[in-house]
C-alpha cells in the first residue's frame, strides 16, 4: 500500500512538471510587453518573475521547443521586431535559462541541445 502511494505521488509530481501551455507562457511573459515594445527601459519585476517561472521548463528539449514556438508566434502577432530583447530577457533578469536565441526565422524544432547551449552562452543566459 505504501509503495502504491509513493508511486502515485511520483506520477503526480511528474505530470505537474510538464511544459506550460502557450496561454500560460504568454500570461507569464505578459508583464514584459512594455519592455519589449521599448516603452520601459528595464523589464518590470513581474516580467522577470515570469522568466524565472519558465526557467524551470528549459532543461527538456520538447519543453524548450514548445516555449520557443509560443514566444515566436506571440511576438510575431504583436508585431515585435526586436527579437534581441526577447532573447536577452533571461540575462537581463539574471535568470539562467537554456533557450535558443529566438528570432523571426528560427525553426524551433531544429534547435538541438548543442545549439541551445551555444546560443545561450552567446547571450549570457547560462
Automatic annotation (TrEMBL):
* UniProt entry keywords in alphabetical sequence: Disulfide bond, Lipid-binding, Signal, Transport
Q: Where is the signal peptide?
A: 1-17
* Family annotation (InterPro entries): Bifun_inhib/LTP/seed_sf, Bifunc_inhib/LTP/seed_store, Plant_nsLTP
**Can you tell me which residues the record assigns to a coiled coil?**
none
Query: Which residue range or ranges hold the Bifunctional inhibitor/plant lipid transfer protein/seed storage helical domain?
Result: 22-108
Keyword Cytoplasm present in the record's keywords: the answer is: no
Transport found in the keyword field: yes
Briefly, what is this protein's role?
Plant non-specific lipid-transfer proteins transfer phospholipids as well as galactolipids across membranes. May play a role in wax or cutin deposition in the cell walls of expanding epidermal cells and certain secretory tissues.
State the family it belongs to.
Belongs to the plant LTP family.
PANTHER family xrefs: NON-SPECIFIC LIPID-TRANSFER PROTEIN 2-RELATED (PTHR33076)
Q: Report what the protein is called.
A: Non-specific lipid-transfer protein
Lineage here is: Eukaryota, Viridiplantae, Streptophyta, Embryophyta, Tracheophyta
Which gene is annotated as encoding this protein in its UniProt record? Answer: LOC103337723
